Batch of 4 targets.
Target 1
Amino acid sequence: MKAANILILPGWQNSGPDHWQSRWERLHGYRRVDQHDWMRPLRGDWIAQLEDVLLQGVEPAILVAHSLGCLLVAAWATHSHNTHLVSAALLVAPGDADREELRPVLASWSPIALQGLPFKSILLGSRNDPYCNEARAREFACAWGSDYIDAGHLGHINAESGLGDWQAGHALLQRLASQPHHSTSAQQEN
C-alpha cells in the first residue's frame, strides 16, 4: 500500500484537523482531494476534481471517503470511463443527501447514485449517525456492492466520535488494500 495511492475524500465542509481523515493524512502521507468549494458542494464539480486527481496517478488508487465523499465515489463511478483507476474504496458514514433537512444544501446530490461499484469496497455505518440511519447505510452498501460493517454507536464517525487516529479503521483500510484488485464488470463477463 503506497501512501501516494491513498486518496482522502472528505465530505461537506471538509475534515478538520482532529478528524481521523486529517490525522491519517499527517501520519501516513495520504493525499486529500481538495474541492473548490467545501461549503456549497456541487456534484459535477466534485466529480470533475476527483477525475482530474485520478488521471494524474500512476497506479490504481484506493479511495477513503467520509460522509458526502461516499456519495462522490458512487456518483463518480456512475459517470466516469476511468473506473479502472480505482482498486478499492473505504466508505465511512455515508451522508444521505435525500434527507429533507439536507436537500437545500445538497440539492445537486439527489438522486443518489445507487449503481454497483466496479471495484471492491467496504462501507462502515453507525447505528446513531445523525446524517444517515443504519437502514439507509445498509441500503447503500447493498446497492453499491459493498461489504457492510456495523460500527456500533459512533455517531457520524468523525472528530466528535473521539476516534483519535482510529487504528481500527486504518486496519480495515490495510485489509482492503491487501486484497487482490478486481473489476465487477470483468467478473460479470466471466
Target 2
Amino acid sequence: MSVLALRDVVKTYGDVGALRGVTLDVADGELVAVVGPSGSGKSTMLNIIGTLDRPTSGTLHIAGDDVGTMRDDELSALRALHIGFVFQHFHLQPGATAAENVADGLLYADVARRVRRRRAVEALERVGLGHRVDHLPNQLSGGEQQRVAIARAIVGDPTILLADEPTGALDTASGTAILEVLRELNSAGTTVLVITHDLELAASLPRQVRMRDGLVEQDSAGGDAAELAAAIAGGAR
C-alpha cells in the first residue's frame, strides 16, 4: 500500500522549473534515499511531500488523502498526524532541555502538558538519550543534538519521517550512529525518506531514487536496483 504517491508533480518559480513532472510511490514501511546534486529538485520535493509548499500542478496523496483538496488548517492537522521532519541543522531551543525541545513537537497536537513530557521522555529513550532528558543543547554533542531532533520528529508517532541531510553537519562516527537510529525507527514501522547528496549513505539504504534537473532519473524500485546501487556506490568512491 502506498503511503505516499506523487503523480506528474510540477513546481515552478517564475520561469524556473524546480520539478518537471515527478511521479513517485513509497510504500508503507519503506526506507528510501532520495539522492541528487544541488539543484536536482530533491529539496523542493521534500517541501511538497511535507506539505510546506504546494505543487504548481499534479497530485500528492499522503496516507490516502488528496493533499490538493485540503485547506491550510487541514494541512496543518495532516502534518501533525502523519509527518515528522529532521533537518541538517538541529533547530533546538538553546534554553530548553532535551525533553522540553522534544515536547515542542506536540504543541499543535492538543496534548496535555504532563502527557507531552512523558511522551518526550519515551521518544528520547527510543533514540538512546533516556539519560540526557534534562540536558541543555550546549551540554550535548552534535550527534546527541541530532538525536534530540529525531526524537522531536517522532514524538507524535508520524507515518512518514522526512530526514533532510540528517548527517550533513556531523562527523563520520556520529553520522553512522544517526543512520542506525533511522534504520531502527524504520524497522519499528516508520516510513523514512532520507534526502541527501551523500552517495555513500544513499547506496547503503534499501531503495535509491536519483533525481536530476527536476525529474526522477532512476529508481531502484523500478527493476534497476543493482545497476543504480552500483552506480551510486561507484560515484561515492
Target 3
Amino acid sequence: MGMFDAINISASGLTAQSFRMDVVAQNIANATTTRTADGTPYQRRTTVLAEGRSIRFSDVLAERRGQSTAGSGVRVVDTPADQSDFKLQYDPNHPDANEEGYVQMPNVDIVREYVDMISASRSYEANLTVVNASKKMAAKALEIGR
C-alpha cells in the first residue's frame, strides 16, 4: 500500500458521502411535491454504494493470482426510487385531490431523511479525519528523513 492509497480511498468516501447528502437534501426539498413531470408525486431516492474497482494493472494482476490487494474505496452505483407506497393526506381543497378529497403525498419520511443525513455527515467526517491523519503521518515521515 502506497503513501497516497489511504488518501485516495478516503477521498472516494468523501465523494460518495457528499453525493449521498445531496440525494437526502433532494428528498427533503421535494417532501411536499405532489406532482412531478410524469404527473405522480415525488418518489424518495436512495443511494447504493459499492466497492470501488481498481484500474491499476498491478492490482488487477494480483487479484487474478488470488493475492490480497489494498481496498479501492467506494463508488456510487445507483440512486433508485423507493418503491414504498405514497402517503394519503386528506385535503379536499388541494388541486391534486381525488374524488374523496385525498392527495397522494411523496413517500418521504423527514425523520428518516434526517437520520440518513446525520449518518452521511458522520461518515464524511470520519473520512476527512483519515485524510488529515494520513497527511500528518506523511509530514512526520518526511521530518524523520532530515
Target 4
Amino acid sequence: MNATTIIFVRHGETLWNQEGRYQGQMDSPLSKLGLDQAERVGEWLSKRRIDAVYTSDLKRAERTAECIAKHHKLKPTIDPRLREMAFGVWEGLTRQEVRAQYAQLWAERHQDRLQTRIPQGELPAEVVERLRSFLSDCTAREEKQTIVVVSHGGALRLILASLLGIPLENSSCLSQSNTGVSELVFRKGSKSCPWEVLCLNSTSHLA
C-alpha cells in the first residue's frame, strides 16, 4: 500500500509568543530563542531523508522551514493554506487586552469556540477545510515520499484533531510547542487507519 510520511513542525518562538499576543495571520519575527529552535530542529531532521518541505507563507514559518530545507538542498514550497487560523480583530492583542476590549465576545467564544466567529476571523472548521485541501493535493503528489510541513500552533492542533478523529472542541488538548514535531503516515486506501501516528509534539531536539 502506498504511504506518505508527513512531518508536521510548528515554527520557532516569536517575539509575540513571548508577549502572549494573538498572532494569527499577522507576522512577528522569530526571537533569538526561536531562531535557535529552528536551527536545532533543522539539524535534528538533517539525519532523515526529506523529499520536500512545505511552509505557510507567514515569515515565522518560512524562516523555520528554511532552517530545515537547507540540510537537504531543498527550497521550501510556500502554500498559504498552511497559515495560522485568522483571529481577526484580536490579532496583535494580548489576552488581557482582548478580555478588556471584547468581553462579551470573549465569553461567547469560550462557551462555543466552534461557532463563534471573531470579526474578520475564521472558524475552526474553515481552518481544517483549507489544511485538508492542502493535504489532499500533497499526498496525491508526494506518494511514497517523506515531506515536512511547517505551520502554526492553532492550525496544527485543529488538523491533527481532524485527522485523528478527535472532536475539534478538544483540539486544545493537543499541545504544540515551538518547533514541536508530529509525524504521521498516510496510507491511501486504508479504511481502518488512514493516518497512523508515529509521534506527537516531540521536542527531544531541544533537550
